[in-house]
Automatic annotation (TrEMBL):
Signal peptide per UniProt: 1-20
Gene3D superfamilies: TolB, C-terminal domain (2.120.10.30)
Record-given protein name: SMP-30/Gluconolactonase/LRE-like region domain-containing protein
Keyword Signal: yes
Ranges of residues in domain SMP-30/Gluconolactonase/LRE-like region: 196-380
InterPro entries membership: 6-blade_b-propeller_TolB-like, Oryzine_lactonohydrolase, SGL
Keyword set includes Signal: yes
Key words, A-Z: Signal
Length: 405
């Protein structure tokens, strides 16, 4: 989701000590780069405590530890990070939020594909020229790539991809799916939002699978996953209109299913503020959707920053039995991923937060700023896109491999 990054880079993120806790004595051996936060130690703050006023700019870092590090809330987080976790920055660009969304790991070439954020400076400049709310502003957005093999201890070499004009404002990605990268795009100006396949190899040719709902345009497609049935599920929200790169919404924010063979599309879930990230449990029976209404046209932290869980109907694949899975304490839950054990990872306002399949917060990969998305890159590795930086975490957990590589 684009607006999150715009806000975070324009304001200094404060780490905020709710309590002046010293490091809690952990009832287990603490792995390196980690702290244990014992829940009873902050359960009661008292009448004169400094409470957090903002979920975005005052993060929960009671030990005042310098990021990046692992925050452990539950001992079972140890099985996720393992005995010798390590998290480090591998790329940065102070002037351009190049590492943003749609990460896909292609294990055949050991490469990570991802998209940059748009340059809000360009959008603002274009808006200044045309004072009316505008579309088709020239904005910077590039698809990039780096090879994990050539990540040295401190650096990843990033290459820019030249994608066809049909691929505009890439915001979600998954796969590889049958040999191609599977992206969803916001579209831009008159160019419709789309579900598109891109060749991971040169010349990176693309095939658009879908760009409308019975002749009506989507608003701005945000994220995508492939279900074990082979069907493609994606979310549509209103961010691109808020960012002035798309016309006002003409269809509700909702979740769709595309049958890639029959090319039929239907709605599987509705009633959201801003349906954003999407993921399925390993068996495909549970769907997770993050709803990020608190960070949309306005910032309003009384609105949703919530991951909902649904049962996927066996026959129709409609999402049934909506329930609250987790509400994040920091910013919004953006991209979501599930590991082989069913634990759920979301990019949030302070880093990557991890819950077990019952929605219990186990711990965080605490980065100290908003994370739009991340991706498992082989067993025990995760690449985290942090806007102006990329982090690599070496952990124990494994991501779900692509189902139809
Ligand atoms: C809170 O602060 C007020 C004003 O300084 C003081 O009178 C009161 O005793 C404090 N309460 C606690 C529990 O410290
Ligand atoms: C940062 O990104 C900008 C825009 O792509 C590029 O011109 C510049 O060279 C980059 N800086 C570094 C240090 O990579
Ligand atoms: C300003 O609006 C005009 C007319 O709608 C359009 O042709 C032009 O591309 C716009 N300029 C910018 C910078 O968006
Ligand atoms: C790219 O072009 C090749 C050769 O024409 C074709 O086989 C392949 O399906 C194309 N891939 C995509 C994603 O369009
Ligand atoms: C929804 O919940 C009800 C009650 O637990 C259950 O009987 C039903 O099977 C669930 N629906 C799906 C699609 O799993």
């Amino acid at each position: 989701m684009m607006v999150s990054l715009r806000i975070v880079i324009s304001l200094q993120v404060l780490t905020y000590a709710v309590l002046s806790l010293t490091q809690n004595a952990a009832p287990f051996k603490l792995p390196p780069q980690s702290v244990f936060i014992d829940s009873p130690s902050f359960a009661v703050l008292g009448e004169n405590a400094t409470f957090r006023q903002s979920s975005l700019f005052q993060l929960f870092n009671p030990t005042n530890t310098t990021p990046p590090f692992f925050q452990i809330f539950d001992q079972s987080f140890l099985s996720i990070i393992g005995p010798s976790p390590f998290i480090r920055e591998i790329a940065s660009n102070n002037t351009f939020p190049f590492a943003y969304e749609a990460p896909i790991f292609n294990s055949k070439t050991n490469e990570v594909f991802f998209s940059s954020s748009i340059s809000m400076k360009d959008v603002d400049a274009a808006l200044a020229v045309n004072s009316t709310s505008t579309i088709n502003v020239p904005v910077t957005e590039v698809c990039l790539i780096f090879n994990l093999m050539v990540v040295t201890a401190t650096h990843a070499f990033i290459l820019q991809l030249d994608l066809p004009e049909t691929v505009q404002m890439t915001n979600g990605g998954t796969g590889p799916f049958k040999g191609s990268l599977l992206f969803v795009t916001n579209g831009r100006g008159p160019r419709p939002a789309s579900v598109v396949l891109v060749n991971p190899l040169s010349p990176n040719n693309a095939t658009v699978l879908l760009d409308n709902f019975f002749g009506r345009q989507f608003n701005s497609l945000d994220d995508v996953k492939v279900h074990p049935s082979g069907n493609i599920f994606f979310t549509d929200l209103t961010i691109a209109s808020i960012d002035h790169i798309r016309p006002p919404p003409l269809i509700p924010p909702q979740v769709y299913r595309l049958d890639p063979n029959a090319r039929t599309v239907r709605v599987v879930a509705t009633g959201f503020m801003e349906p954003n990230g999407i993921a399925f449990s390993p068996d495909g029976e549970t769907a997770y959707i993050s709803d990020t209404g608190s960070l949309a046209a306005t910032v309003d932290q009384t609105k949703t920053a919530t991951i909902f869980a649904f049962d996927v109907d066996k026959k129709t694949q409609a999402f049934k039995n909506r329930s609250v899975f987790a509400y994040t304490d920091a910013g919004i839950p953006d991209g979501i991923h599930v590991d082989t054990k069913g634990n759920v990872y979301a990019g949030c306002g302070d880093g990557v937060q991890v819950w077990n399949d019952e929605g219990t917060l186990l711990g965080k990969f605490f980065i100290g700023s908003s994370i739009a998305n991340m991706i498992f890159t082989g067993d025990g590795r995760m690449v985290i896109l942090a806007g102006n930086k990329i982090f690599l975490a070496n952990i124990a957990a494994k991501g779900l491999p692509p189902l139809f590589p």
